[in-house]
Amino acid sequence: MTDLLSPTRKQVADWARLSQKKFRRESGLFLIEGEVCVREALAAEAVDCLLLQSTEASRWEFLAYEFPKILSYQLNTDVFRRVSQVEATQGIAAVGKQFKLPARKSGVTLLCEQVSDPGNCGALLRVADFFGASELILGPGSADVWNEKVVRGSMGSIFHQPVREVGDIHRFVLDWKGDSIALAAHEGVSVSESFASPKLLVLGNESRGISAELESACKHKVTLKPKGNAESLNLVTAAAVFCYALS
Fold first, then answer.
1. pLDDT attached to residue 140
2. Other CB atoms closer than 10 Å to residue 6's CB: what's the count?
3. CB atoms near residue 70 (< 10 Å)
């Protein structure tokens, strides 16, 4: 049997600070919330410790027994809410250890330019994982991959999908060996065209799209022609369509 521990004030303060990008970078830790993501993190051996809300502890304490080498803490409701970054909590969270996965040897690579919405970034991780993407590349101005909303939005895919940050994405595109393909809002060829591997799909900001400089660096532009009255698709849906077509 594994006893549930009581946290110190410093531990609680540090866990609450995981909402800050700077502290996540300094500590090498990040917050994981919800059953799906916590289970995926445990399977990936990416958990530093488990956090159980006292009112829900009986529901989740079996995890403490299943993973006895991982310290498990019981937090009262007020303390858990201080640490948690969601309102409708399931009463289970974990402190995760940051990690890096090697790129897959095949599959399209996705590059994000200033995709700043954490929910969209997390959903793109899920899309990339679903289609077996080689990597998801995050350029400057994109959401921090260890942001709790990114982790939660990925529905566990963050523990499977290779992802990394690149500072100079313009140079990254210019140096790409295969076909670099800009996802354009209006002008571009059909996605049914044939492209040379390895394929790089470049995605832009949710509202502004891809910058002119980065778009000009890409070898191709692709777009979806609407059949109905809607002018466009949101970024994640469009990315999923193109990943399917390019995979």
1. 97
2. 11
3. 17
- Pick the range with the lowest mean pLDDT from 1-10, 72-81, 102-111, 142-151: 1-10
CB-count burial class (<10 Å; 0-12, 13-18, 19+) for 163: buried
CATH numbers and ranges of domains, the chain: 9-97 (3.30.1330.30), 109-246 (3.40.1280.10)
Contact 95, 49 (CB under 8 A): yes
Rounded distance between C-alpha atoms, residue 108 and residue 135, angstroms:
8
Distance CA 88, CA 234 (A): 26
- What is d(CA 111, CA 165) in angstroms, rounded to the nearest whole number? 10
Token pair listed for 233: 């698709």
Sheet with 220-222, strands from edge to edge, namely: 163-165, 135-138, 109-112, 199-203, 179-183, 220-222
